[in-house]
Amino acid sequence: MHTEPPPPPHPPRPRVTAIMVASLDGAVAAPGTAPGPGTSRGLSTPADRELFRRLRRATDVVLVGAGTARAEDYRGVRRRRPLPDEPAPGPPPPVAVVTGSADLDPGAVLFTDTLTAPIVLTTAAAPAGRRDALAAAGADVAVLPDLEPGTLLAELARRGHAAVLCEGGPTLLGALIDADAVDELRLTLVPVLLGGPAGRIATGPVAAVPPRALRLAGHAAAADGTLLLHYTRRAHPPNG
Ligand SMILES: NC(=O)c1ccc[n+]([C@@H]2O[C@H](COP(=O)([O-])OP(=O)(O)OC[C@H]3O[C@@H](n4cnc5c(N)ncnc54)[C@H](OP(=O)(O)O)[C@@H]3O)[C@@H](O)[C@H]2O)c1
């Protein structure tokens, strides 16, 4: 009797830490000098920026949606200054951008101001000319079958990245929540009220069922009233 070989084992997915900042009334972007809804930079405080830098030092790869990379004019992760008597640190982690359209400016600082080649996670549905232009600008372009969180994380795992720092934005985080792929959330609340049209830290077509339960793993308050919240899931699923 002919029997099918068993499917290959599912590779373990990387651990996903999400970091987001919001105002007390839930806004994820504050207006800056340019027109538009603004960016998270308009919200961030010194304590939030310090946490951000610390988490970037500890991750293998920064994962971000194209909307954020475009709105916040993302650049490569900076090399951190070594402590006295410490050997020079290795290359900074790459920034991996999720984009269905590949509509990123090859002249953007994401490609021109980086020590580590950015990764562009896209599909064959994105125009080939755009994909080629990003590759020519120095990006490591991964053409994936789809941009489902499982596919994105499997690709990052295949590249040897075990720790992923997701810096948003809300669309990408919503997809990760829907896929139950968020292991840790670092949520910074800054002591301002904004009102206005800014959205939540995660959005998507449907709410997760059941809600993804997290537990408070730590918290700290900065002198300026910034609250740094650290939540984790109870257990990391062995096979994503
Ligand atoms: N407060 C915070 O902590 C924080 C953090 C990050 C961003 N933000 C703010 O959030 C706003 C941007 O929001 P956003 O929701 O547009 O951000 P986003 O999630 O970074 O970007 C959405 C875009 O990314 C691509 N994408 C993300 N996930 C995808 C998926 N699973 N499948 C296919 N494509 C995917 C698509 O790009 P294409 O259109 O290229 O196909 C989509 O249009 C900005 O104002 C930014 O400043 C705030």
From TrEMBL:
Q: What is this protein called?
A: Dihydrofolate reductase family protein
Bacterial bifunctional deaminase-reductase C-terminal domain ranges (all copies): 14-227
Presence of keyword Electron transport: no
Q: Which pathway does the database say it acts in?
A: Cofactor biosynthesis; riboflavin biosynthesis
Q: What keywords appear on the UniProt entry? A: NADP, Oxidoreductase
Per the UniProt record, the source organism is Pseudonocardia nematodicida
Residue span of region Disordered: 24-45
The cross-references to SUPFAM superfamilies, in alphabetical order and at most eight, read: Dihydrofolate reductase-like
Mind telling me which Pfam families this protein's record contains? RibD_C (PF01872)
Record's Gene3D superfamilies? Dihydrofolate Reductase, subunit A (3.40.430.10)
Compositionally biased residues, Low complexity = 26-38
Q: Which InterPro entries match?
A: DHFR-like_dom_sf, RibDG_C, Riboflavin_Biosynth_HTPR
